[in-house]
Specification:
The protein has 171 residues and is of the alpha+beta class. It contains 6 helices and 5 strands; from the N terminus they run αααβαβαβαββ. A 5-stranded mixed beta sheet has the order 1-2-4-3-5.
Length: 171
């Protein structure tokens, strides 16, 4: 008996046996699209693509949280951005035209429950923000929060960058 993966693959690829060229092209396009999406997600969250200083900030935050008894429940969602992708985010999501992500100088991450109260909320974002602002980044880079946004992931997101000067925003 074939494995579930084999059955799924056969079902996905079965239109390729069809004589209908439109069906074949649709399946090939879908496979290439989803392969590209997975590759793109892996590439855009790769911390080796950003400048070492911004990685230092992120790692220092994780270490400081642990040293203070917090859980470093953080998840990186954006590092390097391609210009074309950033342009889409400018149009549909309010991203900055000259984003530090395009320059490989920024990391966006989600802050989950770091204080152990069983809930990921603004208290967790505030803890991480205070450590970054007062102890790690200080006046050497940017920090942005999005706590006023309606989407959970945006509310819990923090942006950090290594612009070399002070920058702060709260949306």
């Amino acid at each position: 008996m074939p494995s579930p993966e084999t059955i799924l693959l056969r079902n996905l690829l079965s239109p390729l046996k069809s004589k209908n060229m439109k069906k074949k092209m649709l399946v090939i396009t879908a496979i290439l699209f989803f392969t590209g999406v997975l590759y793109f997600i892996a590439l855009c969250n790769n911390t080796s693509l950003v400048k070492p200083k911004v990685n230092e900030y992120y790692n220092a935050l994780k270490t400081t949280l642990q040293d203070r008894g917090y859980k470093p429940n953080l998840m990186i969602i954006s590092t390097k951005r391609f210009k074309w992708f950033n342009n889409l985010l400018v149009i549909f999501n309010g991203a900055a035209t000259n984003s530090r992500h395009v320059k490989c100088e920024a990391i966006d991450f989600i802050v989950f429950d770091i204080n152990g109260d069983g809930s990921a909320n603004s208290k967790d974002v505030d803890i991480a923000y205070e450590i970054l602002d007062k102890e790690i980044i200080k006046n050497k880079g940017g920090i942005g929060t999005y706590k006023e946004e309606s989407n959970f992931f945006n509310k819990q997101m923090i942006h950090i960058d290594c612009r070399g000067k002070y920058g702060r925003w709260h949306r």
